[in-house]
Amino acid sequence: MPSAGITNVADLNVEPGTLPEKMTAWVIREERFGEPTDAFQMEEIEVPEPGPLEVVVRVMAAGVNYNNVWAALGKPVSVFRYHPDEDHHIGGSDASGVVWKVGPGVTRWTPGDEVLIHCNQASYEDPEVHGLDPMAAPSQRIWGYETSWGSFAQFTKVQAQQLIPKPRSLTWEEAASYGLVYFTAYRMLIDQCELQAGHRVLIWGAAGGLGVFATQLCAATGAECVGVVSSDAKGELVMKLGAKGYINRGDFAGMMRKGGETPDEEKARFGESRRFGKAVKEILGDAPDIVFEHVGKATFPTSVFVVKPFGKVVICAGTTGFDLDFDVRYLWMRQKQIIGSHFANAYECYKANELIEQGLIRPVLWRTMGFDGVGEAHQLMRDNKHLGKIAILVGAEKEGLGRTEEGPGAIMAEVGA
After folding, report:
1. Cβ-contact 378, 72 below 8 angstroms
2. Distance between CA atoms of 246 and 282, rounded to whole angstroms?
3. CATH 3.90.180.10 residue ranges for the chain
4. Cα–Cα nearest to 193, from 225, 163, 164
5. I want to staple 54 with a disulfide (CB 3.0 to 4.6 A). Which of 103, 144, 212, 408 is the partner?
6. Model pTM greater than 0.85?
7. 22-178+363-412 architecture in CATH?
């Protein structure tokens, strides 16, 4: 429950360059693991000071992602496994805000700069950061999940390399909504799969946070995609984003892998996967070159089966389960590839953000909620009652603030979930 004295989180009595002693934050503690509406509670927490090459940002708005549903549940592992020296977890891996105080060695950013934050952290001392890829560094962590000091607070502490100039045509809530999912989708398709014009792509969960950006990236590059969705209303959204067609997964419920199927059940499930593959071909004209995966256990056997010979299945998550079970003969005999992908490095985030600035890719924002809605927002995501992204107002007093140039802004996903 809110502590005594907590009022409007948009009110501050300090100027850029000076930090207050305390801040309001939504906090998860180990003894509260459970449903998001129970696990998240508002507390007063000390404001962190920036260390060398670190920056403290005043959060104007934050984005909601599934990783902090996991943080609330304490599954599949406890977030305190990643930061055991802290007894609290402040989640949130997306934010827009204002640079408030910089640590020693920071030269690129000054108090007052308007930024958004990408969520990859790694140690400057790891050699992988300086020649291979920061995502390969032993110290690599996702800020706001594998670290504390995330965006569901008045202030957040980040590495200076996490900052990206805020697109001027976006409001605070629009700018906070897209980083984690969009930058993840960008690396998956553009860098890992070398997406190009003419490719055919199957996108699972095409109306979700990752899927709406995968769909737009296909349209922007001249690739054709079909989106799998859970309702015709969501199908209308992905068509608006540039998909060639959509498939309602409810029409193929029997293809979903549950685990432990009997031989007869597996035979029936595989038959449904074949029928699904035919539906994909009817829309795309051929089997997909790329399957965009993040669902995991329920869909992965179908993904490996339907992708064309020498095609690629790229996966970044497993929301229905991590223990994947599939017929590997369709992998080796047809020389398909499985590619694991995890978020993005700073350069990829910058390049992806340029497409936002150019209006070629647009955030898809379903709902903006006040700071008191953090637990509810994660519960909506856990219950799959969301469509596109949810933003949380923190320092911004109301929706619509922060835009300083004309531009297309976000696509509002107003159709029902």
Report:
1. yes
2. 11
3. 22-178+363-412
4. 225
5. 103
6. yes
7. Alpha-Beta Complex (3.90)
User: Can you identify the CATH homologous superfamily of domain 181-340?
Assistant: NAD(P)-binding Rossmann-like Domain (3.40.50.720)
Angle of helix 209-221 versus helix 179-186 axis, rounded to 10: 40
Phi and psi, residue 217, nearest 5°: -65, -40
Read off the pLDDT of each residue in 259-279 and give the average, rounded to a whole number: 96
Structural tokens at position 414: 């107003």
Across the chain, mean pLDDT equals 94
State mean pLDDT over 76-96. Answer: 95
Give the pLDDT confidence score for residue 415 in this predicted structure: 47
Alpha helices, DSSP H, located in 333-373: 346-357
3 state SS of 201: strand
What pLDDT does 8 receive? 87
| Helix locations, 160-262, DSSP H | 172-176, 179-186, 209-221, 232-240
Cα–Cα distance, 117 to 119 (Å, whole number): 6
Angle between helix 232-240 and helix 209-221 axes, rounded to 10 deg: 40
